[in-house]
Amino acid sequence: MADEGLDEVKVFRKVDTDTVDDDGEDDQLFADKQDVAAEAEIEEEDGIQGNSSFQSLGTPSAFSTVSPAVPWMGGYLSPAYQQMMQSMTLMSPSFYSLMANQRNIFNQFKPPDVFSQLPSSSTATDPATGGPIRSTPKSSKENRRLIKEEKQQNQKPLIKKPLNAYMIFMKDNRQKVLEEDGNASKQSAEINAILGKRWQQLPEEEQKIYFEKANKEKEEHARKYPGWSARDNYAIHKKKKTVRKIERNNENSDAKKCRARYGVAQQDLWCRHCKRKKRCLLVDSEGHGSDDSTDSPPTPGSGGDLPDVKPHTTSASPSLSSTMSAAAQQMQNFIWNECN
DNA sequence: CATCCTTTGAAGCCA
DNA sequence: TGGCTTCAAAGGATG
User: Fold this and answer.
1) Does residue A165 have a pLDDT over 60?
2) Quick one: pLDDT at residue A235?
3) Strand B closer than 7 Å to the CB of A165?
4) What local confidence, expressed as pLDDT, does residue A327 receive?
């Protein structure tokens, strides 16, 4: 890891995502509004004839003075340079925000091709509208690209969660699994399932190494990004969240969990998930009902291989699980008798 | 192009 | 405080 921070900041998120409701329609509406705003911005830029619209936006005339208006610019800038920057700012309202958001923007910024965007003649008008001639599709495309870049600059960089012990283990061992015979064609999910099992089988001392690594990473992360919260990254994939929420709501909600089933005193009987305060595996397998359980067996590593608790039998045998409620037992007996 | 799959652990949210 | 959800990684599959 040459620079630990680099691969943590990979994607960008919208600053105002938290203000949007969970409602998918609202999300769409929000996205549409953004599109409309972007289009309007493009049109405004395409039609720029002077600096009046820019000034009316109230954007500060950033380069009329060097400091303290732009303290990050530091020392002396030549008058010629100042003049250049000022004219660029006046030509593009977006340029100021770019400047304000990136210290080293001069290394990255490519000035917009403003000359090709301008009408061939300042007096040229559109015969249809009587207004100024719009830019060519090519220049509009260029504008779109610039606006996209600008938006990326303005967006808050997403600081990712530090990796936990298992994630570090996975990262370290994924390639090994891939290289093993026949695993090259395996899908990620399949590999992760294998790694999950290996993690469970890993001796405590070796797991401890990864936990220590994870702790170090967590401390480093906290040091680098004080005030960061995992919450900052929540609700980005609202669609996914909403879908899952609906699915969960449709599931059997009154099914017993290990805690209720066995009680706190018998925590050793709890399933892996309940021990970790996660969704009960037994509830999951029961919640789909007996019919479902035969159609769709538990996925490998999820509910099928419970190390802590013997899973409920899904065989047709009437031998009853000790954990099954009386009503469920009655029902199973009934079905069994009907089928035989 | 976005999301799913699949795993574990950490952290946030809600009642 | 318990229970639940989300997000970290990965990359092929899928809609």
Assistant:
1) yes
2) 65
3) yes
4) 39
What pLDDT is stored for residue A13 in this prediction? 37
Secondary structure class of A132 (helix, strand, coil): strand
Spell out the alpha helix ranges (H) of chain A. Answer: 24-46, 52-56, 79-91, 93-101, 105-108, 114-117, 137-154, 165-179, 188-201, 204-224, 238-250, 258-262, 272-275, 281-287, 289-295, 326-339
Looking at the predicted structure, is the pLDDT value of residue A192 above 70?
yes
Q: How far is the CA of A154 from the C1' of C14 (A)?
A: 33
Q: How far is the CA of A22 from the C1' of B13 (A)?
A: 15
Per-residue pLDDT, averaged over A109-137, amounts to 37
Report the nucleotide nearest the CA of residue A170, measured to C1'.
C9
pLDDT higher than threshold 80 for residue A178? yes
**Cis, peptide link before residue A203, omega less than 30° from 0:** no
* Cβ of A84 near strand C (distance < 7 A): no
**A251 φ/ψ angles, rounded to the nearest 5 degrees:** -80, 170
Question: At CA A309, angle to CA A327 and CA A249, rounded to 5?
Answer: 55
Task: Please give the Cα distance from A132 to A241 (Å, whole number).
Answer: 46
Is A314 within 7 A of strand B by CB distance? no
Among A79-93, A115-129, A221-235, A308-322, the range of highest mean pLDDT: A221-235
Tell me which protein residue sits closest to nucleotide B12, measuring alpha carbon to C1'.
Answer: A231
* pLDDT tens-digit readout, A238-275: 444 444 444 444 443 333 345 555 555 555 665 555 55
Indicate yes or no: strand B within 7 A of the C-beta of A231: yes
Å separating the CA of residue A208 from the C1' of nucleotide B6 = 23
Q: How far is the CA of A81 from the C1' of C8 (A)?
A: 45
Q: Is the pLDDT of residue A163 over 70?
A: yes
Nucleotide nearest to A171 (CA to C1'): C9
Better-scored residue on pLDDT, A321 or A198: A198
All domains in chain A, ordered by first residue: 8-157 (no CATH), 161-227 (1.10.30.10), 251-315 (no CATH)
